[in-house]
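Notebook entry, structure prediction.
Reason for the run: the old model in the group folder had no record of what sequence produced it. Starting over properly, with the input documented here first.
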Amino acid sequence: ARGKRNPGAIKYCHPLVEKHLSPTYGIMVYQEQAMFLAREMANLDWLEVDKLRKGISKKSGKQFDEACSIFANKASARGIPQPVIKEVLQVMSKFGGYAFNKSHACMYAIVAYWTGYLKTYYPSEWMASCIEVDKDASESEKKLDVDMRECERLHIKVMNPNVNESELKTTVSDDGTIYLPITSLKGIGASGDSIIENKPYKNLDDFVMRSGCNKTHFVALASGAALMCLVENTEDVDEEYFLDYWLEYSKTKSKTKKLSTQINVNNNSMSLLEMRDLSKRNASSKSKMLLMLDDF
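New structure, fully documented this time:
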């Protein structure tokens, strides 16, 4: 940046160095700069230039030492002063830590611009995308920790999964709040499709009737506070409250199922108890009918 503001302040150790590095204000940025400078200063052939490029990227070891030795010997044979050779090699060594070819660097610049634009003008959507990608990545805990701290810095709310707001992937509400997906809860996974398809829900009764939720799903949702939105007063509500609710619901459902069991015989709808009475009075039908009923 200082070189761009004041190009006259940049000092070059040799005219060839100025020729190749002046476009980037005295800093070696692209691999092509190192390759063409080495070829012109030491008269290396392209095979030797490629070895030098690979050696510089290593920054140490036998390959690096051999590449530097070839460059130094050939540059010296062409009358290049030793201090210049030493300085050029130092510049190349530092350059190896971040070197790109021009096409690669160009695409990185474009991607950097895109991501900077999206994060500036669509911060919630950008951070939601980061969370969605990082939650399934290696070392996800570390990456998600970085994402959460960045959301805090940007004053973006990140909410736990919510059966009325969340989807199968991380989403953003109209007010910019990020909602974690219900699939982030252990025990839900991709099987939460029916929960998403049937929302929104008015209350717990509505939820258990229409969501297709089983016991495993319900426990997972309760543990992750995803059902809190279905309770009016949440002050005294905890996980145990939801577990008690499910037990009561299961008992009621079991009783209702027994009372409503219907078996159609001769186009007449009869309850299970009525069929048992009928089968006892009719000894001829007992062998098959009663055995069938006993399986219920």
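Summary: The chain has a mean pLDDT of 80.
The old model has been moved to the deprecated folder.
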